[in-house]
Specification:
- The complex is a heterodimer of chains A (147) and B (472).
- Chain A has a domain of 102 residues: Beta Barrel (OB fold (Dihydrolipoamide Acetyltransferase, E2P)), CATH 2.40.50.
- Chain A has 147 residues and is mainly beta.
- In chain A, a hairpin with a 4-residue loop joins strand 1 and strand 2.
- Chain A has a five-stranded antiparallel sheet. Chain A has a four-stranded antiparallel sheet with strand order 8-7-5-10.
- Chain A has two helices and eleven strands.
- Chain B starts with a strand and ends with a helix.
- Chain B is built from 16 helices and 22 strands.
- Chain B is of the alpha+beta class and 472 residues long.
- In chain B, helix 4 packs antiparallel against helix 5, helix 7 crosses helix 8 and helix 12 packs antiparallel against helix 13.
- In chain B, 47% of the residues are buried.
- In chain B, a hairpin with a 5-residue loop joins strand 15 and strand 16.
- In chain B, the strands form six sheets. In chain B, strands 13-12-9-10-11-14-21-19 form an eight-stranded antiparallel sheet, with helices on both faces.
- Chain B folds into three domains: 100 residues, Rossmann fold; 61 residues, Dna Ligase, domain 1; 253 residues, D-amino Acid Aminotransferase, Chain A, domain 1.
- The chains are: A mainly beta (147), B alpha+beta (472).
- The interface between A and B is medium-sized, with 17 and 19 residues.
Chain lengths: 147, 472
Amino acid sequence: MKHAEVLRRLYETLVENEFHEIDVRFPDFSCRLLIEPGSGAAAAKEGEPADGPEDGTTPDPADPEAAEVVRITAERVGVFRSGKEQVVVGQKVPAGRILGIIKGISVQDQIVTPREGKILEIGIREGEIVEFGRILFTLGPVERDGK
Amino acid sequence: MFKKILIANRGEIAVRIIRTCRRLGVGTVAVFSEADREALHVRMADEAYCIGPARADLSYLNIPNLLSLAQATKCEGIHPGYGFLSENRNFAEITAKCGFVFIGPPPAAIGRMGQKSVARDLMQRSGVPVMPGSTGSLEDVTEAARVAREVGYPVLVKASAGGGGKGMRLVENESEFESMFNMARAEAQAAFGDGRVYVEKFLRQPRHIEIQVFGDQHGQVIALGERECSIQRRHQKLIEEAPSPVLTRELRQQMMETAVRAAKAIEYRNAGTIEFLLSQEGKFYFMEMNTRLQVEHPVTEMVYGYDLVEQQLRIAAGEPLSIRQEDVVPRGWSIECRINAEDVQHGFAPCPGRIHEYLPPGGPWVRVDSAAYPGYLVSPNYDSMVAKLIVWAPDRLSALDRMEAALREYVIRGIATTIPLHRLVMKHPDFRSGNFSTGFVPQHLDALLDALRREQPAEAAPAEPKAMAAGA
């Protein structure tokens, strides 16, 4: 049921936008979604080629924790609006949580968590101009009990 | 006047626009791709924002991002520069619809001039001479021969679907017309799957002369003289000058009046350029209209004393033209060389790379429009022009000498440039005499390259052992 929920929220978020194709991979199953154009925010896994600016950090491939850090970068230019439910550093968020929107001239793009995690860093403030490639949020793994 | 504008461009033209804005107190918002993070226009603008990755279609051509940024930064207008979106009718239209001023002509003018046949018809109807020829394609050889006779030999038989010289035949006289016509048709059919051809007058050794025009929002149109752009290679201009060495006062007057009439006919506004081919007999024919600021606009600025970007901004802000046609008098001579990162010895192949030593020339009446600096990386993603070197002098030969000296002073190390070639052209007797045509480069290129080969090893050789010795 969890998968269905994530997919539904991904779909709802992106369907309003322009045509796009994404691969969704869960540990036990994967699929491809064909959606309407121009997703406003994209999740780039660290260590993978991303269009975001280099920040000089190189994840240690031997460290599974580092591999789980996700930087959410802006793929569209506009003004950031955090909405009613602002997240704070340290907060645990589920997959599909809307973190804010990038308001462009005729489009609004929602920034959505690609998976569950803990907010490690917030790189944007309410009302700020969002450049292409700006790191908006950094998402870390959720600590498990006993760790 | 505008409080703040967005400059939807990069490189020297973005820097050029920022300079005028600073002088006029207009705020500037620069945009850049991820490849241009260190660019000069980014440093010089009041604000600068990344709008996309290196690929131009995702950054400098990204209309939603450009307009979203213009809105977010509260810009009133958008200057498109040249290239990129400057002649994109759709962009001009959307810009206006979103409530920004497009600092350029009305979208309709861009659209009409962008279609060759529409532009030609419009010009013909407003009394602008166009290259004589058949109006459409010709099927029948007798009919085609009649058109050729009317137009006058020599004529070109050209493929309607064509390009690149395929399906094109030069016919010198009527006796060979039929066989040439049939050959052109067969070649067009083979090359494009379309055997339709048309007939056009062929000009021997023409010159490329263009007229700068300005129209304001109150119906005034003026012409700011001509630019001579005959020194070109494969339709890429290399050297431009103003005035032209061959235009008499009367011919200039006639061409300017024609250009003004053409611009008025299409209710043109802002800066535009009407390109003509000028025959050896002094007859001129409309080629096309460029509905934007031209790369070579500085030579006009130098001889007429007006800042063309300032005129663009004032017109776009609704001010009436302050230049009166009767005040438009050329003073002295100006020449521009386009310094490209190109290896002229290898077919002018683009030569991107890092400039590790950079020292631009100076002195009286020497102007460098460039976005380069020591350490600047010439990106393979965009065009290869590194700088425009512009000089002014009271007369043509002094301008050529000043240009030659400035080229000699110009140091750009790390990449190959067109500087050595320009130096040779400045000394070439045909160029100095003013007696040249668009055939100059094709005619003299081999000899010029030979001369370069003889000259360059001698210049380059001593530098290397010295560097090695210093390193040891």
